[in-house]
Design brief:
alpha/beta; Rossmann fold; ProC C-terminal domain-like fold; 8 strands
Length: about 280
């Protein structure tokens, strides 16, 4: 089916995450117009060459946030969580009724957004992750009190330019962040540990890294390409009474399920502390 181009999208505070989304929209070929803002001229220059992107620096154009918000149908808020209320107060007069405001700010509730932008502005809260920069994100989105299925479908399309999208209720956003938000760090930790194991077997740093990293990258690509259940792929590598089976036996003594449950529970507890201002 043919896609209509996306409406005008503004990304206010296009840091690493907002910048990744700008790149995703630009690469998708669906962009009509993307307006991004940053404080410094240097930061703005990094995004200036992308197709369909207008990159504004607040240092040069102090009204950039208001101008961008006034021109857009979807406004992504990418500034640091503490700066969100001030930014919303700055732009709320410029938002046309029905403009969708999308939060990229971890820990800021939909209620906080709605209390400032008012009833005429649908609010969607999102939680992308850093693989957005290579178009492989997982993004959770949750709609606020006036969001329609059409609003959510449009926000989904914006985030699908840089990966997969899950629609959840807002009370699941923190839990989602412990899996997909923090999850890349868990994978990198496993790669570090396997690299260390290779060095312990007498391989030099470059060889150890190549083996560990490419094995993870290859396994992930095989999982993606095969469409098989990971347990099935694991069985295919694990011959009965073979070497892999013995290694897996040792790993399973670590109770990885329980360990990951504990780790993600700890992250969730911290998210709740942060929300409470601790």
């Amino acid at each position: 089916m043919t896609h209509h181009p996306l409406p005008t999208v503004a990304i206010l505070g296009a840091g690493s995450m907002g910048g990744a989304i700008a790149q995703g929209i630009a690469r998708s070929g669906d962009a009509s117009s993307v307006i991004v803002t940053n404080r410094s001229v240097e930061k703005a220059a990094e995004l200036a060459g992308l197709p369909a992107v207008t990159s504004l620096a607040l240092a040069e154009t102090p009204s950039a946030n208001v101008d961008a918000a006034a021109a857009a149908d979807v406004v992504l808020i990418g500034v640091k969580p503490a700066m969100v209320p001030d930014l919303l107060r700055e732009i709320e007069g410029a938002l046309r009724p029905g403009t969708i405001v999308v939060s990229l700010a971890a820990g800021v509730t939909i209620a906080t957004f709605e209390s400032i932008v008012g009833d005429a502005i649908p609010v969607v809260r999102s939680m992308p992750n850093t693989p957005a920069v290579v178009g492989k994100a997982v993004t959770g989105i949750a709609g606020g009190s006036t969001v329609t299925p059409e609003h959510l479908a449009l926000v989904r399309r914006v985030f699908e330019t840089c990966g997969a999208v899950l629609e959840v209720s807002e009370d699941k956003i923190d839990a989602l962040s412990t899996i997909s938000g923090s999850g890349p760090a868990y994978v990198f930790l496993l790669v570090e540990a396997l690299t260390e194991a290779a060095r312990g077997k007498g391989f030099d740093e470059a060889s150890a890294r190549l083996m560990a990293e490419q094995t993870f990258i290859g396994a992930a690509a095989l999982l993606a390409a095969s469409g098989e259940d990971p347990a099935e792929l694991r069985r295919r590598v694990t011959s009965p009474k073979g070497t892999t089976e013995r290694a897996i036996g040792v790993l399973q003594t670590a109770n990885l399920d329980g360990l990951f449950s504990q780790a993600t529970d700890a992250a969730l507890a911290r998210a709740r502390e942060l929300a409470a201002g601790a």
